[in-house]
Amino acid sequence: MRALSLCILPLLATLAMGLCPAPAELKDADGNRLCARLYADDSPYYDECCAGASLDVKPGDDIPYVLLRWTNRISSLVVGTKCELTVWSKRPKAGDTKKFTAGAQPRLVEVKRGLLGNWDNVISSYYCKCN
């Protein structure tokens, strides 16, 4: 029975992440390490998250003004291994702030922002660093 549970745990972790890549797999088209990848789409179904248009974030990117087509549009994200993504709800680096460490966040609607809000479609600035 223990062997069965050891096989099921990785499968459950994969299902929870859906289409989101593993943090260690974040690379750009040239194979360079990424700090994070931000996605425009999420879904009520985890296996459909981290979809749609994506924005690659390089280590050291310090963006006080997210491009207009990305402002308040980010719905899911993945932060690379040994990296930290700090986000703000307003431009330039103002309003509420949140730090995401290595891992996938397939549904930002589930991440609390204050008493009543969440981080879905509110990211307007970010800074990403890796060790």
Describe, in short, the structure shown:
The protein is mostly beta strands and 131 residues long. Helix content is 12%, strand content 40%.
Question: Can you tell me the residue ranges where pLDDT is under 50 for at least 5 consecutive residues?
Answer: 1-17
**Topology as a string of helices (H) and strands (E):** HEEEEEEEE
Could you tell me the strand content as a percent range?
35-45%
CATH overall fold name? Gamma-B Crystallin, domain 1
Shape: globular
Instruction: Kindly state the number of beta strands.
Output: 8
Detailed description of the structure:
The chain has 131 residues and is mainly β. It has one domain (2-130): Sandwich (Gamma-B Crystallin, domain 1). The protein contains 1 helix and 8 strands. It has one helix spanning 2-17, and strands at residues 36-41, 51-57, 62-63, 76-90, 94-105, 112-113, 117-118, 125-130. The strands form 2 sheets. Strands 1, 2, 3, 4, 5 and 8 form a 6-stranded antiparallel sheet that branches. The chain starts with a helix and ends with a strand. 31% of the residues are buried.
Describe the SSE topology.
Elements: H1 2-17, E1 36-41, E2 51-57, E3 62-63, E4 76-90, E5 94-105, E6 112-113, E7 117-118, E8 125-130
Antiparallel strand pairs: 1-2, 1-4, 3-8, 4-5, 4-8, 6-7
Signal peptide: 1-18
Keywords: Cytoplasmic vesicle, Disulfide bond, Exocytosis, Membrane, Signal
Membrane topology: Peripheral membrane protein
